[in-house]
Amino acid sequence: MYKIVKKEKLAEDIDRFYIKAPLIARKVKAGQFVIIRINEDGERIPLTIAGYNRSNGIISIVSMKVGKTTALLSSLKEGDSILDVVGPLGNASEIENFGRVICVGGGVGVAPIFPIARELKKTGNYIISIIGARSKDLLILKEEMEDTSDELYICSDDGSIGYHGFVSDFLKEYLEKNLTGNAYKRKDKRITRIIAIGPALMMASVAGVTRPFNIKTIVSLNSIMVDGTGMCGACRVEVGGKTKFVCVNGPEFDGHQVNFGLLLSRQKIYCDQEKECMDIYEHKCRLDK
Amino acid sequence: MIEKINRKRQKKEKIPRVAMPEQDPEKRNKNFNEVTLGYTEGNALREASRCLQCKNPECIGGCPVEIDIKGFIKLIQEKKFNEALEKIRERNSLPAICGRVCPQEDQCEKVCILGIKDDPVAIGRLERYVADRELKRKAEGVKECAWSEVTKQCAREKIAIIGSGPGGLTCGSELAKLGYRVTVFEALHESGGVLVYGIPEFRLPKEIVKREIDYVKSLGVKIEVNMVIGKILTIDDLFKEGFRAIFISTGAGLPYFMGIPGENLNGVYSANEYLTRSNLMKAYKFPRCDTPIIRGDKVAVVGGGNVAMDSARVAKRLGAKHVYLIYRRSEEEMPARNEEIEHAREEGIEFKLMASPVEIIGKDGWVHKIMCIKMKLGEPDDSGRRRPVPLEGSEFNIVVDAVIMAIGQGPNPLLTSTIPRLELTRWGNIKADLVTGKTNVEGVFAGGDIVTGAATVILAMGAGKNAARAIDEYIRTGIW
User: Does pLDDT of B5 surpass 80?
Assistant: First the structure.
């Protein structure tokens, strides 16, 4: 049992949970994830680690209510426990002094991008962050990102805050402004790496935007998993024409090599069942009320 | 006088091997309850009476963990069922499991003297009977047995075991009996390894596994779940924490795919995933349990081993109207146990033999058809089995909505890749002495599928047992 020591509402349907998991907190690195199971009948879902404190043994995860498992998670309160938390899983992000790095976070993807941005900043990188959400109310971790970034740009799909449009649209404009024409000649403006985390479609768009600029673009893939240790292959994706397991070969890959069409298709395998499960759960919740 | 003759005749009359009561195939292929129902006391006594109590019993040598088979059957004949169980447990801590899933026909029963002219004694069924009898009696809760007292008093060196499958559990219980403080680390949320994620409920009920593991725990073995060694702790961390020796028994946890086009389509599973969803995650109870699984109308399973049979029979129980088992050789070459092949056939699994998939054809991202090519048998290969050769131009399609790849599992590199100094074979298996389990790293032993490649429960148990002896010797003498 893993105790929730603190719960924070970050936005409507988005919560941050601080969980006591000393052994995981001791080993985890930015970019890794945990798999949780909430109760005996529950499924196993992966969640990227959003923060950790080695000295007090606490890790944090951010979850948005989208299906039954995340709804169950969201129903838990401070002091409650999660039955199983396994980790740290997957490979850590590559952290070194790359120079100028753009961190792109969309929706709840801002949560996992935060510890990566923080580590990159510590290593001496110049951090340009572009974060976005559907609307102002759904934007998360703005303050944290402000603190770890040298430049921070905010986008919203509906224009309620910052740039009106997708993060990928803003990124395109930013790169065009800073990297083409005379600007490109200025070495100090050169972007050496881009890291994008968010919905698969967003990461696909970002990779599309950066490809003509030939900038290394890292994405963190969010495929369906079961064990998270390379045992089942549920999470397989195609990278550079080869099959890879996100859980052990990833979760980060070269965005220009990822077959996003396959990822999007495989993410929808259990759409109908997930809906059925959620309907039953919501019906039960209404009855309980 | 006539009476006397009759009695003599009766005495000479052969008792046939007592059949195992089973659920009717047409009923059982729609439920997940255990297929075989187990002997009654009468069945067991009758079967035990067939044992000749040979002076030089062959059966014991046929058992990878050397159970005193003659001894425990004698005790059954005397109706001393508890003593019979204790006799088995001297050598084997998981009798209810072994009685069910051991390939006895290739081991103890293969060398049974009765088997020369008649059917061998049903050793496995008898083993299961005495184990089940005890488990039923103890269903209310496990009492600490005398062994754990031994453990507490001795409190000897700490030993770490990685993986709580049959190999790890056996090694752990043997070491606990010797007084060592054993901790078993399990990556999943439940202990048992392949016994819980792989072998289906209808062949090995999880309640049985749970109770056997409770017995192992009662010996003083500590099991820590959710511990992916290599990630949360490394081998060196374990040594630093005071573990004097480590036994790696992480199994064959890497699914193989064929490398044919279409394998990443929605609806294509590795057998590992399909069985893990169904067994460990209880997807067959969806939506009562949250883990989903695709319930296809027409399902193809590729492979001819026990895992393929298990997958096919799960698919049938999940409601598939047609389950095709595609195997590239003939039934004779199938590596699955005969009993499993028979059970699968009885339950309506359709065998497509001498055929091999060449492509999975999709429609809107989902599996639609599987294209196969017919095979003929050529010259024998290294394994002695005749090599299948494709018949050019013989391609044919089967319309399916799910495909399960059950063509084997390899060694999972997650742990071994974190120990660069550990020697591996070119397939990624750990190089270890097959008798002692010693690897090239001092204090590190390995056994089971991670060393041998995918094999059986009992072979992993044998390896665990041997390693326990070697670990004890290493700790006592300090000699590597």
Answer: no
